[in-house]
């Protein structure tokens, strides 16, 4: 029975996978349509009957599903707009890390020799540097306009690339070891004996055989990038004013937790944590399905 | 001659996502006390399923019919998993093909023995002493007790598993390809060891499954041929080897070059084609697509396993009467 | 004993050595820092004569697969050189150089399912190969080459069309592996354990394909394996490897009457269908490590006929008629 049928069959049965995938999809849809659903804007304080609203707990009334924080912003609006931003940053970071990592990993693994040494050196340098610290340093200097409107796209791209370029080495290492092992396998040897050019071998023989592995690593990178993006927001490195936790500093200054406005922090927090956790569980489920040795059948 | 294990119309299938594989499809076999029965079969004949189903059947494998009577009293097809665990190692033991399936990798051997003793409700000292005796038999030093299975070489692990399987003097020992992945010298050692286990009455009988007919030649008392989920040929070793009845058995014997054979002297002929699918086996006799003697009836009806007297059984229309 | 059309040891100088291994050594480095070394092949000298079937016999750890990969330029020797028709094969480098080499020397490996890309139809892989080597040929001529290769291994193109590797049995797929190697019409084929993963009943047919290639097309075959009987059946000459060294070399008959104690041990330990084992063996049931130990004879620790000198000094090769043996027992003082 073909490998593909086995994988699809196992996937169908794996409940964890479907539960978590649904969660992820729900959150992504939330980020996409949320802003169209909520009547509030993330950067305009809520005004009703001529008064600024503050510190309102979550209610269905007036669609304040996540309540209003102590600065007067609707938390649900801030969450869905902020999710958009955070997800974009995470996705860009994951794509950059994966593309760079795969290319360098393939080169190091297949060509070996000096290419391997150079890339290995770069990896070691990156491993030695504390990533978050560098991101803070670079971010503080280069984030334009401290998250003012209009600059979001530029900042999202910049942050995404920054995080991605500081995390490609995980992917590169993982891909390199898989490729190096494949290189001395009979299968690749015969491809060379058949007269195939190295580039053709990499594209047609190596890549398809590590594709599922790359998918796994991509999802892990995505989860990590999201964590990093959100952590940076806490520290003030944000792509937009309304990034998910961008206002945390201001809340703390104003004593949000002392005054009991827990929903402003807790609810978006739950959303992002569920997202990241679901991504990790998806990776575990996929790994079980792809790797014959981990299967429970 | 009493029987240790009697299989009648024994069927074991397993369900995959798309279809049902009829790995063992109506096997009649009788394993007698004190004998070594070798089952010869190639890839895709269902032998591994047969072996596993007798000891620890696991989904997606399921017993689809027939009976397997152990010691004339225990119906293996109807045991609960608790009852199965009770008779494991005491009445029936298995040396699986991949030795690491038999013993947990993360426990030291003496720890494993301790757990085993608890499981069988015996004293650890008794189990330990018996094991030390067995270690002498398999020519291993006592220090393996303090080691993890992974630290041992393939041959040593195989011998540890053999020692373990004889601890409680099981009535039936099943060995699945016991000599694969071993070097030549260890292979001979293991085969002769299996024979000693029976002569020294450390096990009652042995069934061993292999694709190497020469191994069976060396230590078997009787030989059975398995093809496409069925047993097609059974008899005393010397008789089957010197005058094989079933065409498949005959071709298997002819495919083994004797040491003096060179292609320059005479060319050997192998068996064309491939074993049939166990999902959709061919109608009639399952061997007919590859059989040089196939007749019309072979394509339509399956031949029964016929008693040819002198303890010889064949499933072939060349010999069975309608 | 001289058989017509077959090369005897003494005739070596008169016949062409199409492949020559000169003092080949291959050392692998393992571990993170590369501190552990394994000497897989140890100073092997081998002449492969044109038009012969050379059987390389060895167990796991003997270096036999490494030799195949060295000849096929998958590994590079640590010391020594390999000559093809007198030229050091090192000159065949780069994409073009390798392709040139592979038009003359091809390979078949042990696991047929690992030899084909599981995601591509087998026929596509074959078509790719012919296109790579004959870029200027027309479609009909390419098809002719494929059909002819398939015929030589006993397969019909209709059996192969549209099917993926997993849809074939092991025996059929191995035949396809041989067909692939034949597409470029090489002079030499290196087969590394070609029948070890194939059912016993199909093995003979596959070995017969190799024999036909030698008889009908004059190809040179190197067939590597661990089964004494099969190696004896298919070979003209044999080489016995132990721990990376050649311990015995000669005409295939020597496997029935071996001289070297290791070969004797193999012959006595294998189960045979025509003879039952006699008395119990006295060989040490040691584990086989990779690579030689360095001092004395490589088999000394397990040899029942070990002499004092065997532990101290490495034996020299001695010519004893049908074969040459690396053993002190045969050196006349």
TrEMBL record, chain A:
UniProt KW keywords: Cell membrane, Membrane, Transmembrane, Transmembrane helix, Transport
KW Coiled coil (keyword) present: no
Keyword Cell membrane attached: yes
Any Gene Ontology CC annotation: plasma membrane
Protein's cellular compartments: Cell membrane
Gene Ontology molecular function terms on file: dipeptide transmembrane transporter activity
InterPro entries: BP-dependent_transpt_permease (IPR050366), MetI-like (IPR000515), MetI-like_sf (IPR035906), OppC_N (IPR025966)
Family designation: Belongs to the binding-protein-dependent transport system permease family.
Listed name of the protein: ABC transporter permease
Species assigned in the record: Ignisphaera aggregans
TrEMBL record, chain B:
Record's keyword annotation contains Ribosomal protein: no
CDD domains named among the record's database cross-references: ABC_NikE_OppD_transporters
GO molecular function list: ATP binding; ATP hydrolysis activity
One Pfam family hit: oligo_HPY
Keyword line: ATP-binding, Nucleotide-binding, Transport
Residue ranges occupied by any ABC transporter domain in the UniProt entry: 7-253
Alphabetized SUPFAM superfamilies for the sequence: P-loop containing nucleoside triphosphate hydrolases
GO biological process: peptide transport
InterPro entries named in the record: AAA+_ATPase, ABC_transporter-like_ATP-bd, ABC_transporter-like_CS, Oligopep_ABC_C, P-loop_NTPase
Entry keyword Nucleotide-binding: yes
Entry protein name: ABC transporter ATP-binding protein
Natural source organism: Ignisphaera aggregans
Taxonomic path: Archaea, Thermoproteota, Thermoprotei, Desulfurococcales, Desulfurococcaceae
